Amino acid sequence: MNTNEKIFQVLDSINTRLDSIDTRLDGIDTRLDGIDTRLDDMDERFDAVDERFDMMDKRLDGMDTRLGGLEREVHEIKVVQENVTNKHIQILLEGNVSMNNKLDSLQTTVNDIDSSVSALDVLHKMRPHNL
Asked: Is there a domain that residue 18 lies in?
């Protein structure tokens, strides 16, 4: 074999190797295209998940607002209820004081009647029965 043939043989070998590398690179390109497609799908899914989270955040914000309103309403109801209860307690106490005053007055009247009855009994016993 002469030098030219050896050079051609080496060049053929290099060419075969380059073809093999080119085939491998084509396979890698195909796999990378598949990976790109998957990444695009994942991006779409992440975007969809982000949108759902945004919607949930908006709903939660609305719920927070509603809960804040409910807390205020409950607090107002509580204050009104405390005021009504205190008013009723005051009315009961005033009625109790008034009732105690009436009972004291009634007790005084009963005591006066008892004294009058006792005096009448004494007078009745002292009085002659034949009159």
From this structure: yes
